[in-house]
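Complex record, two chains
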Amino acid sequence: MSAMTDPPTGAAALPDDVVSIADARGAEVAGQWRLMWWKFRQHKLAMASGIVVLLLYLVAIFAEFLAPVDPNAFNPRYTYAPPQDLRMSFVDESGDRHWGLHVNGYRSEIDRETFRRTFVLDDDDRIAVGFFVRSDPYLLAGFIPASVKLVGPKEAGQPFYVLGADRLGRDMLSRVIHGARVSLSIGLVGVFLSLFLGVVLGGISGYYGGWIDTVIQRLIEFIRSIPTIPLWMGLAAAIPLTLHPLMVYLIITAIVSLVGWTDLGREVRGRFLSIKDEDFVAAARLDGASEGRIILRHMTPSFLSHIIATVTLAIPTMILAETALSFLGIGLRPPVVSWGVLLQEAQNVRSVVTAPWLMWPGAAVVIAVLSFNFLGDGLRDAADPYAT
Amino acid sequence: MLQYIVRRILLMIPTLLLISFVTFVVVQLPPGDYLNAYVAALTQEGGETVDREQIEMLRQRYGLDEPFLVQYWYWISNIVFEGDFGRSFQWNQPVSDLLWGRIGLTFAVSLASLLFVYVVAFPIGVYSAIRKYSLGDYVFTFLGFIGLAVPNFLLALVLMVVSLQVFGVTPGGLFSPDYASAPWSWGKFVDFLAHLWVPMIIIGTASTAALIRVMRANLLDELNKPYVETARAKGQSEAVLIMRYPVRIALNPFVSRLGWELPALVSGAAITSIVLNLPTAGPVLLTALQSQDMYLAGSFILILSTLTVIGTLVSDILLAWLDPRIRYS
């Protein structure tokens, strides 16, 4: 074997797909994180999902700017108003085409048999829609004063329901956008809480072993063996109704992560067990490094990528848990706006049949959960860039 | 084997004790005790005078003036030694009258879903692994991800809406109205089976999706091993060689998830049955929790968890019987 064809030792164990990119850029000098990035980029679906996740969080952060109206602003005139189509142009009576973004206004008709009010979109009533329209002043992300909305009717106060209106004539689009804030952040906060529990308990369990390991493993088995939803329901129902919404939010997050940490705990324990006898750990120990330093500086970086992947896969579970509890009416409650709270409106099947657009928050949940799952899958594959 | 079973049963006892304790703590969390809620409910109904003597008797029986641990002892010892789960003020009945029928149906639905999950996931998982990256594989993978991402209750809701729009009926309940309060008979059983499939599919979808991926991944690992190549080289027919060797090995992790799936399915059944309004534990548990009917809620959580743990134990024992290696690890 000549020196020319002999691959550099760093790239020896790399799979072909990564090597092909790595060849051009010098895999022998690429760090572990760079290799992971290369591998992650191969996973198209995961890349796309990563972008979707990023967009979702941007929506959550800039909710006030993106939502056309206040999510709690109600208007009894437009109860269950159907969605309006956003149109680019219209043709007038003389057959000329006029350009300009607009939606059609409503004409309400009373059904002569059922005496129910139904809405019909009125083709002659056009409401001009513009970008960056003026609005009442608000605080963007809670602290930046602003008074411009991304999109909305040019003349304030005109009906603008792109995704329809709910029971109280509130705009579904604005509500779904604002719901993202609570639902997505519960996923993040919850996952950090369970990460903390999982890393501390799993780490102790794997690093020290012995009786403490047995106790923690029994605890994990115990939590896993009981059906979680009845237990969650019991805990959530104990939250006093008079509590401040923020406290309810925190308690719900804690309840959800109380069960969610077990997966992370197992993962961390397994990693600790598998590397605590490795040579580099022994070397650090012989070098006189303190236990904290060994754990944080030497052991944690070697399995950090796996933890990130597991965390990403845990977030959708948290989102689903919050949605389910709020849907049942024992999680978050109005006036808090989360996807689960919004779906409460859809609990009555008959109202969904008359207003199918009440299911939009459900679509938001599905999109968020799917993207997190794909992203997590891609991260898990990339976490080990040396595997084929 | 016997030693293994005995050890597992002994290990289960502290788990059950812990479950009962956690349950009691959870149902005691809301402020005020059972009798406050009871009296409030009686006065709210109006007209009915609160019987002081009866209240005093209940206070004595459940030790409501005693410290927390003593109350726990009264509660659990009444259940274990006398089968007395307390009274539900909401229904004005002993809890045990409400409990068993609904628990039975809950587990009937959960076990049916378990069966559905395994019967569906096995062939699809094997197919997806053998025909890797085929159109069918992509379709099943996609459906699987959708199944994972759509929460049970949303699926139930969509199904009900669609059925109301298309057929004009809601597929709620587990029985036709004629059979709802009738005693069990062959006709009622057939009627039950006819209603069972809707909740069974809804509850089972997420687990099915997860298991398909487990089966596919395991079988893919096995298919690349040299022994498969050897069998192929010896001229063994493809169908026989795949079913006889790699599938049998890949089956192991697939079956050992049984113990995990049961709690998940019981959980799923609780929430799905609330949406579909099934006469199972879910709806009663929810209203009991909301009105703080503590003995009713506590008994449901306790029995659901206990039976799930026992179910998991049975599945573990079955596994140990199938695969002797488990007994020694």
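Note: The CA atoms of residues 6 and 76 of chain B lie 24 Å apart.
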